[in-house]
Protein backbone atom coordinates (compact mmCIF):
# COMPACT_ATOMS: atom_id res chain seq x y z
CA UNK A 1 0.00 0.00 0.00
CA UNK A 2 1.22 3.50 -0.74
CA UNK A 3 1.50 6.34 1.77
CA UNK A 4 -0.40 9.49 0.81
CA UNK A 5 -0.10 12.97 2.31
CA UNK A 6 -2.80 15.44 1.25
CA UNK A 7 -2.12 19.17 1.58
CA UNK A 8 -4.93 21.61 0.93
CA UNK A 9 -5.27 25.32 1.50
CA UNK A 10 -5.82 28.71 -0.14
CA UNK A 11 -3.64 30.36 -2.80
CA UNK A 12 -0.20 31.38 -1.61
CA UNK A 13 -0.29 29.45 1.69
CA UNK A 14 3.04 27.85 0.79
CA UNK A 15 1.61 24.49 -0.20
CA UNK A 16 3.90 23.82 -3.14
CA UNK A 17 7.08 24.90 -1.36
CA UNK A 18 6.26 22.75 1.65
CA UNK A 19 4.91 19.78 -0.31
CA UNK A 20 7.99 19.73 -2.54
CA UNK A 21 10.30 19.83 0.48
CA UNK A 22 8.46 17.16 2.45
CA UNK A 23 8.32 14.90 -0.61
CA UNK A 24 12.04 15.27 -1.18
CA UNK A 25 12.95 14.52 2.41
CA UNK A 26 10.68 11.46 2.55
CA UNK A 27 11.58 10.27 -0.99
CA UNK A 28 7.94 10.55 -2.06
CA UNK A 29 6.83 12.16 -5.30
CA UNK A 30 5.30 15.61 -5.21
CA UNK A 31 2.08 16.00 -7.18
CA UNK A 32 1.05 19.60 -7.86
CA UNK A 33 -2.61 19.34 -8.91
CA UNK A 34 -2.92 23.11 -9.37
CA UNK A 35 -0.51 22.76 -12.31
CA UNK A 36 -2.99 20.40 -13.98
CA UNK A 37 -5.80 22.96 -13.67
CA UNK A 38 -3.42 25.62 -14.91
CA UNK A 39 -2.53 23.54 -18.00
CA UNK A 40 -6.23 23.27 -18.86
CA UNK A 41 -6.59 27.02 -18.24
CA UNK A 42 -3.74 27.70 -20.66
CA UNK A 43 -5.51 25.68 -23.33
CA UNK A 44 -8.74 27.63 -22.73
CA UNK A 45 -6.93 30.98 -22.93
CA UNK A 46 -5.11 30.00 -26.10
CA UNK A 47 -8.25 28.76 -27.77
CA UNK A 48 -10.29 31.68 -26.39
CA UNK A 49 -12.79 29.27 -24.90
CA UNK A 50 -15.17 30.77 -22.36
CA UNK A 51 -15.04 29.18 -18.91
CA UNK A 52 -18.58 27.83 -19.11
CA UNK A 53 -19.50 24.19 -18.62
CA UNK A 54 -21.02 23.61 -22.08
CA UNK A 55 -18.21 25.43 -23.94
CA UNK A 56 -15.45 23.71 -22.02
CA UNK A 57 -17.07 20.26 -22.22
CA UNK A 58 -16.97 20.65 -26.00
CA UNK A 59 -13.19 21.15 -26.15
CA UNK A 60 -12.19 18.86 -23.26
CA UNK A 61 -11.74 15.80 -25.49
CA UNK A 62 -8.99 17.75 -27.31
CA UNK A 63 -7.10 18.35 -24.06
CA UNK A 64 -4.62 15.79 -22.78
CA UNK A 65 -2.91 16.59 -19.48
CA UNK A 66 -0.12 14.39 -18.19
CA UNK A 67 2.80 14.75 -15.88
CA UNK A 68 6.35 13.47 -15.84
CA UNK A 69 9.35 13.87 -13.59
CA UNK A 70 12.73 15.26 -14.63
CA UNK A 71 15.47 15.45 -11.99
CA UNK A 72 12.79 14.97 -9.37
CA UNK A 73 10.76 17.96 -10.59
CA UNK A 74 7.21 17.61 -11.84
CA UNK A 75 6.59 18.80 -15.38
CA UNK A 76 3.08 19.20 -16.70
CA UNK A 77 2.39 18.40 -20.32
CA UNK A 78 -0.46 19.81 -22.36
CA UNK A 79 -0.99 17.64 -25.42
CA UNK A 80 2.63 16.56 -25.14
CA UNK A 81 4.04 20.11 -24.79
CA UNK A 82 5.89 20.87 -21.55
CA UNK A 83 4.00 23.97 -20.37
CA UNK A 84 5.48 24.13 -16.85
CA UNK A 85 7.18 27.45 -17.58
CA UNK A 86 4.05 29.08 -19.00
CA UNK A 87 1.44 28.48 -16.32
CA UNK A 88 2.73 30.50 -13.36
CA UNK A 89 1.12 33.81 -14.28
CA UNK A 90 -1.80 35.50 -12.50
CA UNK A 91 -3.77 35.38 -15.76
CA UNK A 92 -3.46 31.61 -15.95
CA UNK A 93 -4.10 31.28 -12.19
CA UNK A 94 -7.33 33.24 -12.41
CA UNK A 95 -8.51 31.23 -15.41
CA UNK A 96 -7.56 28.02 -13.56
CA UNK A 97 -9.77 29.07 -10.67
CA UNK A 98 -12.69 29.64 -13.07
CA UNK A 99 -12.11 26.37 -14.90
CA UNK A 100 -11.73 24.45 -11.63
CA UNK A 101 -15.31 25.38 -10.71
CA UNK A 102 -16.62 23.34 -13.67
CA UNK A 103 -17.62 19.73 -12.90
CA UNK A 104 -16.40 18.43 -16.29
CA UNK A 105 -12.90 19.78 -15.64
CA UNK A 106 -12.68 18.28 -12.13
CA UNK A 107 -13.95 14.93 -13.38
CA UNK A 108 -11.31 14.84 -16.08
CA UNK A 109 -8.42 15.26 -13.64
CA UNK A 110 -9.69 13.01 -10.86
CA UNK A 111 -8.55 9.68 -12.33
CA UNK A 112 -5.07 10.94 -13.13
CA UNK A 113 -4.66 12.23 -9.56
CA UNK A 114 -5.97 9.06 -7.92
CA UNK A 115 -3.89 6.80 -10.12
CA UNK A 116 -0.69 8.64 -9.15
CA UNK A 117 -1.51 8.21 -5.46
CA UNK A 118 -2.42 4.54 -5.90
CA UNK A 119 0.90 3.73 -7.51
CA UNK A 120 3.30 6.03 -5.61
CA UNK A 121 3.95 7.42 -2.15
CA UNK A 122 2.86 11.00 -2.73
CA UNK A 123 2.61 14.42 -1.22
CA UNK A 124 -0.26 15.89 -3.23
CA UNK A 125 -1.38 19.48 -2.90
CA UNK A 126 -4.51 21.28 -4.08
CA UNK A 127 -7.91 22.34 -2.79
CA UNK A 128 -9.92 19.11 -2.51
CA UNK A 129 -7.26 16.46 -2.01
CA UNK A 130 -8.18 15.51 1.56
CA UNK A 131 -11.93 15.91 1.02
CA UNK A 132 -12.46 14.36 -2.40
CA UNK A 133 -9.45 13.09 -4.32
CA UNK A 134 -7.80 11.08 -1.51
CA UNK A 135 -10.34 10.78 1.30
CA UNK A 136 -8.29 7.90 2.75
CA UNK A 137 -4.94 9.68 2.78
CA UNK A 138 -2.98 8.66 5.88
CA UNK A 139 -2.12 12.29 6.68
CA UNK A 140 -4.08 15.41 5.78
CA UNK A 141 -2.88 18.95 6.32
CA UNK A 142 -4.85 22.17 5.91
CA UNK A 143 -2.21 24.80 5.31
CA UNK A 144 -3.07 28.45 5.53
CA UNK A 145 -1.72 31.93 6.35
CA UNK A 146 -3.14 35.44 6.54
CA UNK A 147 -4.06 37.13 3.24
CA UNK A 148 -1.28 39.72 3.78
CA UNK A 149 1.36 37.04 4.30
CA UNK A 150 0.16 35.09 1.28
CA UNK A 151 0.16 38.17 -0.95
CA UNK A 152 3.68 39.04 0.16
CA UNK A 153 4.94 35.51 -0.56
CA UNK A 154 3.34 35.50 -4.04
CA UNK A 155 4.81 38.97 -4.70
CA UNK A 156 8.32 37.80 -3.81
CA UNK A 157 7.95 34.64 -5.89
CA UNK A 158 6.88 36.61 -8.98
CA UNK A 159 9.51 39.28 -8.38
CA UNK A 160 12.21 36.61 -8.24
CA UNK A 161 11.07 35.35 -11.61
CA UNK A 162 11.46 38.88 -12.94
CA UNK A 163 7.73 39.35 -13.48
CA UNK A 164 6.27 42.80 -13.10
CA UNK A 165 3.86 42.85 -10.20
CA UNK A 166 1.88 45.00 -7.83
CA UNK A 167 1.28 43.73 -4.31
CA UNK A 168 -2.17 45.31 -3.92
CA UNK A 169 -3.33 43.68 -7.14
CA UNK A 170 -1.90 40.34 -6.00
CA UNK A 171 -3.75 40.61 -2.70
CA UNK A 172 -7.00 41.41 -4.52
CA UNK A 173 -6.45 38.43 -6.85
CA UNK A 174 -5.77 36.14 -3.89
CA UNK A 175 -8.92 37.21 -2.09
CA UNK A 176 -10.94 36.84 -5.30
CA UNK A 177 -9.55 33.35 -5.86
CA UNK A 178 -10.21 32.30 -2.25
CA UNK A 179 -13.82 33.44 -2.71
CA UNK A 180 -14.17 31.41 -5.90
CA UNK A 181 -12.40 28.32 -4.57
CA UNK A 182 -14.27 28.27 -1.25
CA UNK A 183 -17.73 29.04 -2.54
CA UNK A 184 -18.06 26.96 -5.68
CA UNK A 185 -20.68 24.22 -5.80
CA UNK A 186 -18.33 21.34 -6.64
CA UNK A 187 -15.42 20.31 -4.43
CA UNK A 188 -14.99 23.69 -2.72
CA UNK A 189 -11.94 24.37 -0.60
CA UNK A 190 -12.81 23.33 2.96
CA UNK A 191 -10.76 21.77 5.71
CA UNK A 192 -11.33 18.01 5.87
CA UNK A 193 -12.64 16.92 9.28
CA UNK A 194 -9.56 14.81 9.91
CA UNK A 195 -7.03 17.36 8.57
CA UNK A 196 -4.45 19.02 10.81
CA UNK A 197 -4.80 22.83 10.65
CA UNK A 198 -1.50 24.66 10.24
CA UNK A 199 -1.33 28.46 10.09
CA UNK A 200 2.10 29.23 8.67
CA UNK A 201 1.98 33.05 8.95
CA UNK A 202 4.65 33.01 11.65
CA UNK A 203 6.42 29.76 10.78
CA UNK A 204 9.52 29.21 8.69
CA UNK A 205 9.65 26.66 5.88
CA UNK A 206 11.90 24.48 8.06
CA UNK A 207 9.44 24.57 10.95
CA UNK A 208 6.47 23.62 8.79
CA UNK A 209 8.44 20.82 7.10
CA UNK A 210 9.54 19.39 10.45
CA UNK A 211 6.01 19.60 11.82
CA UNK A 212 4.58 17.62 8.89
CA UNK A 213 7.37 15.03 9.05
CA UNK A 214 6.76 14.53 12.76
CA UNK A 215 3.01 14.13 12.16
CA UNK A 216 3.86 11.59 9.48
CA UNK A 217 6.08 9.61 11.86
O1 LIG B 1 -2.62 26.01 -6.41
P1 LIG B 1 -2.71 26.83 -7.70
O2 LIG B 1 -2.69 28.31 -7.46
O3 LIG B 1 -1.71 26.41 -8.71
O4 LIG B 1 -4.15 26.45 -8.29
C1 LIG B 1 -4.72 27.11 -9.39
C2 LIG B 1 -6.24 27.06 -9.29
O5 LIG B 1 -6.68 25.72 -9.50
C3 LIG B 1 -6.81 27.48 -7.94
O6 LIG B 1 -7.37 28.76 -7.97
C4 LIG B 1 -7.88 26.48 -7.63
C5 LIG B 1 -7.72 25.38 -8.60
N1 LIG B 1 -7.43 24.09 -7.97
C6 LIG B 1 -8.49 23.33 -7.57
O7 LIG B 1 -9.63 23.76 -7.68
N2 LIG B 1 -8.29 22.09 -7.06
C7 LIG B 1 -7.05 21.61 -6.90
N3 LIG B 1 -6.89 20.37 -6.40
C8 LIG B 1 -5.94 22.39 -7.28
C9 LIG B 1 -6.16 23.64 -7.81
CATH class group? Alpha Beta
**CATH architecture descriptor name:** 3-Layer(aba) Sandwich
As for the number of domains, it is: 1
Give the biggest beta sheet. 5 strands, parallel
Average pLDDT number: 95
Hetero groups bound? 2'-deoxycytidine-5'-monophosphate
Unreliable segments (pLDDT under 50, ≥5 consecutive)? Answer: none
SS-based structural class? alpha/beta
Count the strands? 8
Label the overall shape. Answer: globular
The arrangement of helices and strands along the chain is: EHEHHEEEHHEHEHHEH
Describe the structure using short key phrases:
about 220 residues; alpha/beta; Rossmann fold; binds 2'-deoxycytidine-5'-monophosphate
Structure description:
With 217 residues, the chain is of the alpha/beta class. It has a single domain (4-216), classed as P-loop containing nucleotide triphosphate hydrolases (Rossmann fold, 3-Layer(aba) Sandwich), CATH 3.40.50.300. It contains nine helices and eight strands. The protein has helices at 15-26, 33-46, 53-59, 90-99, 103-119, 129-133, 147-160, 167-183, 205-216, and strands at 4-8, 29-32, 65-70, 73-78, 81-82, 122-126, 139-144, 196-199. The strands form two sheets. Strands 2-6-1-7-8 form a five-stranded parallel sheet, with helices on both faces. A three-stranded antiparallel sheet has the order 3-4-5, covered by helices on one side. A hairpin with a 2-residue loop joins strand 3 (65-70) and strand 4 (73-78). It is globular, with a radius of gyration of 16 Å. The structure holds 2'-deoxycytidine-5'-monophosphate. Residues 11, 33-34, 37-38, 93, 96-97, 100, 126-129, 177, 181 line the site of 2'-deoxycytidine-5'-monophosphate (DC). Residues 11, 33-34, 37-38, 93, 96-97, 100, 126-129, 177, 181 line the site of 2'-deoxycytidine-5'-monophosphate.
